[in-house]
Amino acid sequence: MGAHWIHGPSKENPVFQLANLFSTLLDQTREFLHVPQVPVPSVGQYMRKEIAQQVKEWTDDDETKWLKLAILNMYLKLECCISGTHSMDQVGLGPFGEYTMLPGLDCTFPGYGDLPDCMLTSLPKESVVFHKPVTVVRWGGSYRDESQEGRTFPVQVECEDGERFLADHVIITVPLGFLKEHHETFIDPPLPPRKADAIRQLGFGTNNKIFLEFEQPFWPPDCQLIEVVWEDESPLVEAGTDVQAGWFRKLIGFLVLQPPERYGHVLCGFIAGKESEYMETLSDAEVLTALTDVIRRLTGNPHLAPPKKVLRSQWHSAPYTRGSYSYVAVGSSGDDIDVLAQPLPEDAPLQVLFAGEATHRTFYSTTHGALLSGWREADRLLNLYDTSESHQHKPRL
Ligand SMILES: Cc1cc2nc3c(=O)[nH]c(=O)nc-3n(C[C@H](O)[C@H](O)[C@H](O)COP(=O)(O)OP(=O)(O)OC[C@H]3O[C@@H](n4cnc5c(N)ncnc54)[C@H](O)[C@@H]3O)c2cc1C
C-alpha cells in the first residue's frame, strides 16, 4: 500500500511485468478496428481469454498466480472507470481502437471550472442563462415572434418554467444519458428511427468520485496513489452479483490529492458501474463506514481513525446527466456516433444540431471531445452563412 512508482521497470520487476502484460493485451484490443470478424464481441471477453492463455505459461506457485490474477482484476476495474462502464464485457471490441489517446502526459490545473469561466468572458453579458432546464425542443415549425414584426422561426425551445425561446438554429448538448431517458419527448417531432437507435445502442455508464478527508494522513508524504487489490478476486472467476453486500469491492483505489497544504489530507476514490450506482443510493454515513472498513482492512489497522468528511458525485442519480460519459457498447459502432451528430432535418436547412462528448467519434467521453464537437457545430453554422446568399435577418441561436 502507498506505492505509486514501479521502480526499475524491467524484466526483473514482477509488478512491472504485470502492468506491462495488461497494457500489451489492452493495446491488442485496439487492433480489431477494421477487422471484418472479431474473435469475441467485447473488450472484456478478449482480455479474459488472453489472460487465461497467459496463465498457462506462468511457472509461479499457486499463491503468486492468484495474487497476479487479483492485480489484473484490479486493472480491469480501472478500465471500467476509464470507459465509464459496469463491465468491460459491455464495451465493443471492434470499435475500441477508434478511441484516440492524445500524446503527452496527463496533467491537471486548478479546476475544470476555470475553462468555462474563461470562455464566458468572451461572450456578451447575459447571453448565457443558468438554471433553466429545457423540457422540449420543437423543430420543423413556424413560430411567430410578435416582438420582431411577426418574424417566424422554425425552432421553439420550451423550458420547465414555461418560458419559450424562438430560434433559427439550436445546438443540443445534453448528455447521452439524458437523451436515452427523454429523447422521445424532449425532441418534437421525434428523432428519425436511425438516430433513436444510435441513442439506444451507444453505451453510457457511471463512474463516480468519492473524496475522503482525514484529520491525519495514514499514507507517507510522497504517496500519490493507493490501489486496492482483493486477493480473492480474479478476471477468470465470475464476480459476485450481490451488489448490496460487496459494492465497495468495485472501488479501484484512491488518488492522494497533492499538495496537502492546499487540499488537506484528502483521498479521491473512483468507482464505476452498478456498484457505483448503488453507492449513490446510500447515505454519506453508510459510505463513510463501508470505506473506513476497506481502509482498515487494507492497512491492517483496525483502529485507524475514520475520515472526518465524505463528499461524492452521484452522476447516475443526477436528473440532467443520468450517468457519467459514453462508450461504444457491444452492438454499436463509431457510425452510431456520427449518426447522433447529424443535424436535423436530414435534408437541410439546419435547425437542430448536436454536440457534446458522445458526438465525437474519436474523443468521446472527454472534455476535449466535448469542446471540439461544439466548435464543429459552430463551424457548421458559420459555413452555412458564409456560403449562403446575403441574409435579411441576423440568425438567432
Ligand atoms: C468522474 C468523472 C471523471 C472525469 N474525468 C475526466 C478527465 O479526467 N478528463 C476528461 O477529459 N474528461 C473527464 N470526464 C468526462 C467529462 O467530464 C465529460 O466528457 C464532459 O464534461 C462532457 O461534456 P458535455 O458538454 O458533452 O456534457 P456535460 O458536461 O454533461 O454537459 C451537459 C449539460 O447539459 C445540461 N442539461 C441536461 N439536460 C438539460 C436540459 N433538459 N435543459 C438544460 N440543460 C440540460 C446538464 O446539466 C449539463 O450541464 C470525467 C467525467 C466524470 C463523471
TrEMBL record:
The keyword Glycoprotein does not apply. It is found in: Cytoplasm; Peroxisome. Pathway: Amine and polyamine metabolism; spermine metabolism. Residues 110-382 form the Amine oxidase domain. Keywords: Acetylation, Cytoplasm, FAD, Flavoprotein, Oxidoreductase, Peroxisome. GO terms for biological process: spermidine catabolic process. InterPro entries: Amino_oxidase (IPR002937), FAD/NAD-bd_sf (IPR036188), Flavin_monoamine_oxidase (IPR050281). Its EC number is 1.5.3.13. GO terms for molecular function: N(1)-acetylpolyamine oxidase (3-acetamidopropanal-forming) activity. Its main location: cytoplasm. GO terms for cellular component: peroxisome. The keyword Oxidoreductase applies. It catalyses: N(1)-acetylspermine + O2 + H2O = 3-acetamidopropanal + spermidine + H2O2; N(1),N(12)-diacetylspermine + O2 + H2O = 3-acetamidopropanal + N(1)-acetylspermidine + H2O2; N(1)-acetylspermidine + O2 + H2O = 3-acetamidopropanal + putrescine + H2O2. Its cofactor is FAD. It holds the Pfam family Amino_oxidase. Monomer. Belongs to the flavin monoamine oxidase family. This is Peroxisomal N(1)-acetyl-spermine/spermidine oxidase. It comes from Chelydra serpentina (Snapping turtle).
